[in-house]
Amino acid sequence: VESLSQLQVERSTTTQVVAIVQVEQERARQLLTDRKVAIDTYNASAKHLQECLVEKTLAFRAREGVEEEAKLAMLHAAALERTTANMRLLWDAAHTDRQQVKESIQTLKGQLEGAVDGRHALSDRLLALQYRRKGTKVHTPYGVGVVQYFRESDNILAIRLRTWKATVYISLVHFIQAAKAMQQRELLAMRSVEVECKAFVRVERRREASECHVMETEEALCREITLWAQQMAAKEGHIRVAVTKVEVQTQVRMALRDAKRRFRNEAEADAVRAHAAKIRLVRPKLKTMPKKLAPQRSTSLAKMTAAMAITSTNNATTNSATPAALPKVSKQSTLDKTRVARAALKRILMAHAEAAVLTTERNLVAEYDRVHHDQLVTTVGNGCVASLLHELLVDVADETIQEGVVGAKTMELQSTIVHSRQHPHVQVNVHVALRRQVVGRKMQLEVVKRTWARQLERLRCVQAEVRRRNDMERRAEEERKRLEAVCKEMAREDLACRRFYREEKRVMMVESRHMQLAERELQLMLEKYNTLDGDDKNKEGSKVARRLQIKKGKREKHRLADEWAAIKLEDDLAMA
């Protein structure tokens, strides 16, 4: 009976567990349905995202130019923002420094005023302290004395006079007022000395200015002398080079002429020898004479010799008329005639060469003198014209300057332009030019402002579009992450369900095993009690019971097979 009741309790427990398993199975089926719906939603979202990406690509392609301009504008705007931020930082730092400097100046001014007041307050006390010390030397109306002691009750000094050998009692206030009067006299004296020093410094500065002017004049003269020396050196070098060139050309020409003359004389001598050899029966062998002994005759030398002979004859005839007897002229040899002719020719050539050199040098000197004269005339003319213009335009320039100053002041009063301290007043034309420049700059800045306004508006539109698309991408990414999280949660629940099913299956198998064992024990117990009866009826009943037991065993096997098939089907459905 207890076993039956225990079996009934276990059966009721198993029934409850089966009900719970069915509920969980229904929940798992519902989760599978939700998973399928989520997968379908995810596929639809992915398809929609793909379509959005296609639209985005088309929009990017359609707005490529605008995006490029927007990128450039964004870069420029970023650069402007950085520059503005840097300028703002610099402005803030400068403003902070300025405020700190102002505060420091105010603090220092307060400290200075306090120090001045304290100095004025302590001046009398310092003087009193100086005179109160024992042994201090003071000047009294009665002479020089030394302080013996100070009486604080009535501020009286006891002074020992050196000359009178007496002690006098004088108030401390008297000495303090005397010291202040002496300080005032020293201050006045220092002011007069300062005025004299300033006058002396002004005189010294004027003297230094005059000395600098004289030194500048001397330096200009030295520069002119140095420039003149350089020009003369260049002139002499140029003349030297030209003269050397002429001399070299003359020497070369003379050498060429001598060579040509020598070759011509040798050719004439060879022609004479050849002609003489043709006339003779026996042609003698030509012998060349040494150059030192061979006479070089030419037509020019013969003519020059004949001219010199005629000149000597004329001279002899002229001299014969004189009463003085001249020595007899010996006949010159051929060698002497040749030597004299050569020397005369050389003198003539040297005279020609010297004449060419002198002509070249004279022309160069005349050219340099002409250039120097032109420079002097130009310098003097420029100086005269400059002095004349200076004398004529002084009054005109003064009147123009005064008119310009008056006009500049008037225009300054009529406008808001702030000028510098170095140049407080500018001319009218400069003022007008500055005003036009300011107006032009203002117009340029307005154009730049409008341009930047348009660019910033475009940039704002582009940024809004970019934010919208980023928001869409962010939401799509969040939806994708949410679906992934849901899928992961469903997968975790699926695994938990499978683990729960396996555990329940194991418990069920254990329970069924225990139930089979309990049933087997019950059957054995019943058989035991049935065998104790020992009659035939009972035997027949035992056979029937045996057949019933076999049938029940088969039914149990079929039931278990059906349960296993249902469990496998559920597993397959859960895996799908």
TrEMBL record:
Keyword annotations: Coiled coil
Entry coiled-coil feature ranges: 462-535
Native source organism of the sequence: Aphanomyces astaci (Crayfish plague agent)
Name listed for the protein in its UniProt record: Uncharacterized protein
